């Protein structure tokens, strides 16, 4: 049965139907107070949380914020490693692959309306064993991203306060703020935070971009005398350095696993791909502009995260602008694994869509547990660039490239006996190639990122676990 046929008909309200969020729009309500039935959330009632209240524009904002936040801050450093031409070509190639992956998510969701996350995809493709394996990997990936965002937020607090207290304290504060914001129960209510986060992070990276363009020399360059920015059209990285840099670029688009959940909470999931295409076009344009300009003016003296590239004063200003965006990234990526665990525990019970004590106790426990694990990760691996590369390699390649290629093959494998067209054969081979490519990138990128972390711990002055040292000066 299709997704649409299981819903109570909801009257349209003109343009308001597709607005970001308008609490005044009331969907149709039947005689027992049920607004709609959903294959993920069950009966959505008038007196409970409305999990299906994200319009297509709200989805654009959530998609943008699920991408922009971590990856953009490491882009200039990745371009420095690879060289501007190879770096941009690889960035465009990754953007194209991720757009195809996003399209596959939209189509797969419509064919399988019971899907809320990649865990459900694992169950559809590989049964109960696939569900459990995907559940573990999905939650680990999302919580690792939260840990990386917490590290970024602690860097921001250090920069703004000029290392006002121990870095370990800032990590705790960031984790607590993330827990409080992620406790908001629905993505429809979080989408307004997405606007704040999007404006915050974009204004910060635009500010640092303008700043490096008007300054005489980057903040990390020698303060006096001649200096060489060592700008490379084509870089000469080692194999491990290149692998780690490519992994950082992959993480810049690694919001694909969140797409399922965003589509599931849209009022009309058929509009998901519209939102996704708009989002990816905007993201790629921003990435190319920011990465190119910052690397061109800073060269070898680009910082990672990039917001520290324009000097002490501008670093404080840029991180002050970026902090809300970093916390929204923490919020989204903390909310989604907690929501999955909550759905798993509460599915089939009356507490799922109610406001009962059990509902709130289980929900807050799920958010707190995920936040606690993310805090431990952020404290144990406090090296921003290396942590970003590790996440991109180990999880981003699997969830953002390999899985979507396998999804397309799964849903179209029967056609190989009946469809002999060039288009079908090309798509089949392309998706099989993407699966193999993702496997290669996972192995090589993880190797490079782990070596980066080891080198950072061994280096003089490197960050260590649960350190009080100012991490806003690291590169």
UniProtKB/TrEMBL annotation:
Its main location: membrane. Residues 53-448 form the Amino acid transporter transmembrane domain. Gene3D superfamilies: Amino acid/polyamine transporter I (1.20.1740.10). GO terms for molecular function: L-amino acid transmembrane transporter activity. The chain crosses the membrane at residues 54-78, 84-108, 133-155, 161-181, 193-214, 234-256, 277-297, 317-336, 357-381, 387-410, 422-443. Pfam families: Aa_trans. Keywords: Membrane, Transmembrane, Transmembrane helix. The keyword Transmembrane helix applies. It is found in: Membrane. The keyword Ligase does not apply. Belongs to the amino acid/polyamine transporter 2 family. This is Amino acid transporter transmembrane domain-containing protein.
């Amino acid at each position: 049965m299709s997704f649409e046929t299981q819903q109570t008909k909801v009257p349209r309200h003109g343009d308001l139907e597709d607005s970001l969020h308008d609490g005044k729009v009331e969907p149709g309500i039947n005689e027992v107070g049920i607004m709609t039935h959903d294959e993920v959330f069950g009966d959505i009632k008038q007196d409970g949380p409305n999990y299906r209240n994200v319009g297509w524009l709200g989805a654009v904002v959530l998609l943008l914020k699920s991408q922009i936040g971590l990856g953009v801050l490491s882009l200039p450093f990745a371009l420095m490693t690879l060289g501007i031409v190879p770096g941009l070509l690889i960035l465009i190639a990754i953007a194209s692959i991720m757009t195809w992956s996003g399209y596959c998510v939209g189509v797969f969701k419509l064919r399988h309306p019971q899907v809320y996350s990649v865990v459900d995809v694992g169950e559809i493709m590989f049964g109960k064993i696939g569900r459990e394996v995907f559940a573990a990997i999905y939650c680990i990936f999302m919580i690792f991203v939260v840990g990386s965002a917490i590290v970024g937020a602690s860097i921001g607090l250090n920069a703004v306060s000029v290392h006002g207290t121990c870095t370990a304290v800032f990590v705790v504060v960031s984790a607590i703020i993330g827990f409080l914001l992620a406790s908001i129960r629905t993505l429809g209510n979080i989408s307004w935070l997405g606007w704040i986060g999007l404006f915050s992070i974009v204004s910060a990276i635009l500010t640092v971009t303008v700043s490096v363009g008007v300054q005489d020399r980057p903040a990390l360059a020698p303060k006096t005398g001649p200096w060489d920015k060592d700008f490379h059209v084509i870089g000469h990285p080692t194999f491990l350095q290149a692998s780690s840099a490519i992994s950082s670029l992959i993480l810049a688009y690694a919001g694909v696993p969140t797409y399922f959940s965003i589509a599931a909470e849209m009022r009309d999931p058929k509009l998901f791909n519209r939102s996704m295409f708009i989002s990816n076009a905007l993201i790629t344009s921003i990435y190319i502009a920011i990465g190119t300009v910052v690397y061109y003016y800073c060269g070898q003296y680009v910082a990672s995260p990039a917001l520290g590239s324009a000097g002490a004063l501008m670093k404080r200003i840029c991180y002050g602008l970026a902090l809300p965006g970093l916390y929204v990234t923490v919020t989204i990526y903390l909310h989604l694994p907690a929501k999955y665990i909550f759905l798993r525990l509460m599915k089939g019970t009356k507490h799922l869509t109610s406001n009962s004590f059990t509902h709130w106790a289980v929900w807050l426990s799920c958010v707190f547990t995920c936040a606690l694990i993310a805090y431990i990760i952020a404290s144990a691996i406090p090296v921003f660039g290396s942590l970003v590369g590790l996440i991109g390699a180990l999880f981003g390649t699997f969830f953002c490239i390999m899985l979507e290629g396998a999804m397309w093959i799964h849903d179209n494998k029967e056609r190989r006996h009946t469809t002999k067209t060039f288009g079908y054969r090309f798509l089949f081979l392309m998706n099989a190639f993407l699966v193999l490519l993702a496997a290669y990138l996972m192995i090589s990128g993880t190797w490079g990122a782990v070596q980066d972390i080891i080198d950072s711990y061994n280096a003089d002055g490197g960050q260590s676990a649960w350190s009080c040292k100012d991490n806003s000066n690291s590169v």
